[in-house]
Amino acid sequence: xxxxxxxxxxxxxxxxxxxxxxxxxxxxxxxxxxxxxxxxxxxxxxxxxxxxxxxxxxxxxxxxxxxxxxxxxxxxxxxxxxxxxxxxxxxxxxxxxxxxxxxxxxxxxxxxxxxxxxxxxxxxxxxxxxxxxxxxxxxxxxxxxxxxxxxxxxxxxxxxxxxxxxxxxxxxxxxxxxxxxxxxxxxxxxxxxxxxxxxxxxxxxxxxxxxxxxxxxxxxxxxxxxxxxxxxxxxxxxxxxxxxxxxxxxxxxxxxxxxxxxxxxxxxxxxxxxxxxxxxxxxxxxxxxxxxxxxxxxxxxxxxxxxxxxxxxxxxxxxxxxxxxxxxxxxxxxxxxxxxxxxxxxxxxxxxxxxxxxxxxxxxxxxxxxxxxxxxxxxx
Amino acid sequence: xxxxxxxxxxxxxxxxxxxxxxxxxxxxxxxxxxxxxxxxxxxxxxxxxxxxxxxxxxxxxxxxxxxxxxxxxxxxxxxxxxxxxxxxxxxxxxxxxxxxxxxxxxxxxxxxxxxxxxxxxxxxxxxxxxxxxxxxxxxxxxxxxxxxxxxxxxxxxxxxxxxxxxxxxxxxxxxxxxxxxxxxxxxxxxxxxxxxxxxxxxxxxxxxxxxxxxxxxxxxxxxxxxxxxxxxxxxxxxxxxxxxxxxxxxxxxxxxxxxxxxxxxxxxxxxxxxxxxxxxxxxxxxxxxxxxxxxxxxxxxxxxxxxxxxxxxxxxxxxxxxxxxxxxxxxxxxxxxxxxxxxxxxxxxxxxxxxxxxxxxxxxxxxxxxxxxxxxxxxxxxxxxxxxxxxxxxxxxxxxxxxxxxxxxxxxxxxxxxxxxxxxxxxxxxxxxxxxxxxxxxxxxxxxxxxxxxxxxxxxxxxxxxxxxxxxxxxx
Lengths: 380, 476
Description:
The complex is a heterodimer. By secondary structure, chain A is of the alpha/beta class. Chain A is built from 13 helices and 13 strands. In chain A, the strands form two sheets. In chain A, strands 1, 2, 3, 4, 5, 6, 7, 8 and 9 form a nine-stranded mixed β-sheet that branches. Chain A has a four-stranded mixed β-sheet with strand order 10-11-12-13, sandwiched between helices. By secondary structure, chain B is an alpha+beta fold. Helices cover 46% and strands 14% of the residues of chain B. Chain B is elongated. Chain B starts with 13 loop residues before the first helix and ends in a 30-residue tail after the last strand.
């Protein structure tokens, strides 16, 4: 009997919590994207744009009576981000929820003023943020970027993230920089690049990249899309795209090669105390577009010329990026990381002096192309 | 058992005693004939005995002999009756049971004592052994047990033509005696198992048993568990398979249901069809029934915990459309789920209780009420309707009705835990149920065998069914 009473009361403890911590999905202010910006004001230094989902305006379901966008951007200002988020509750009845956050846009202005480490401190600490959020940088205002009407996706923030999914189609598109990788790079103390977005004729467009320095953790320079291609070749991130051989490289008309497979190996070699980086690029390509009339692909050795010219193009691209990185003394090429892995003893001794070593580091580049064919048909 | 003593010492005649026991019921008929100095009394219950048989096999041969001039002594009676089964009843207390089986009881009295014989003259109305309604099979034998234990034994004999098949008769009930048969294959079933079953049967203290379902509850040892301790079936093939695996079957007179002990969860999720098809598709079907069992228990709980606790675990596009469809629903999702579950359960019960011709009305009304009106009037969200109906369909796909009933019950427990603590509560519930299942014993046999304790060799007839050369039928 006594035992029964005891069990009864212990069970009550469970029931008394009721639906503790429960929060219905329709009561959430789901947020798809955030934009951080700098605000020209003494009091409120920062501005933050939250992109809310407005479920009622989503078309295509049973009660489709939509008018207006399925999203709502709320831009508020404050002296820190947590405060701004809590201030959102003054304007929206649904508390913001960041578990479905897709992308985060930072501005050039903001990163010139404040170091990245401090900026993202709140977002790293809070449990709702996923480490898969895509991070971008822009020269425009972040509120403008998030306000660009998406054409194929429902939300601007989703379209933004999906753009970087094309990194296997074009050399100019960098792979998604995830929030987790940003935190990793900062912890490693390495320089890195953030994909840049901009607005082109009312549409969102991926541009080059912004370079974040390992010392100030602020933005110190920019890379053009062409330089992104070189960077991708160096850091073994090429998984598709094309190599265009233009007039200045060849005596004949232009030709375009499509990359089927590519890999780069970075080998730091230590010889008599002198560190050399050996880059070996191996790629197999096929002829995709050809403007040269004289070329006959049915003749043996047709690809020799193309191979040489293509290798030259890639080598030049890589050399260009290495030269500007060495000029800036910023190692976003991951040479330091590879040295620390493959030559740990050397790294242990010299890593404090790496900036100087890196700027004068001799790099040998060896590009090896294999041309596998000319596609399904040749009409010559 | 009620026992009355009859004998020579009794002041009245034996037939008078019996008549008294039947309270001078009108359908107990008595006929006394004189056979050359021997008084022969016939007793039978009119409605369940075949008068033509009595006439042909008892009266006419005896009367023919009596017209001759030979002297008849009582011990000659069995030889004079042209029937195979003429039993000598030495224990007079069993006379009434013989009468109730439709036998004709002959009392031959000479100077010293009563010689009692019974002759089987049963006449009864019986169903034909049709396919059991609630256990349809695609291929394989289609006969089913009926309400008569003799015929059921015959059906089982027809499926298991072996001299090892033994029927052990027991009688249960104080007021009304029901005969129960412990059935097993000698050499296959272990002696300890048979003893345990026998022991539990003899321990029953009850006035009467109406059905095998009552017997099941009287001999099980885990009355607080929702899981069936004995499997029940109306398929002779299923019983035959179980006996071959070394299990014991219990047949109850008057019930088409046969109980099988011991049972395991694995066994409840199997169908005879699994063995009749090639092993690859049969294994996939086996996997499917495990999957549906899991779904029918977990899906509503998982849905509730995702949409009211862990929104981050739903894929974004689904989360967005879910929040759209839930827009305007007046209840929290937990209440919504309980409303829908209750509706489905009511519809289900109504469908079972209603006579067949009107039964379809329920499904039409149910489909319109649930599928259309509830959603369009905004009481429930379309997704919830989908989740609950899919769960209901999954629970229909479970091969065993007892198990489906048990899983239906614990589904509410899971739903309740999930509504309080989300995925965490669901995991606690899974933990509790799993612990219970592992601890559960069916006639000293672990319920979760071969998964706990693990017997990898027997897994070839669990999630999958291996081909016959490698995976022979496993025992228990």
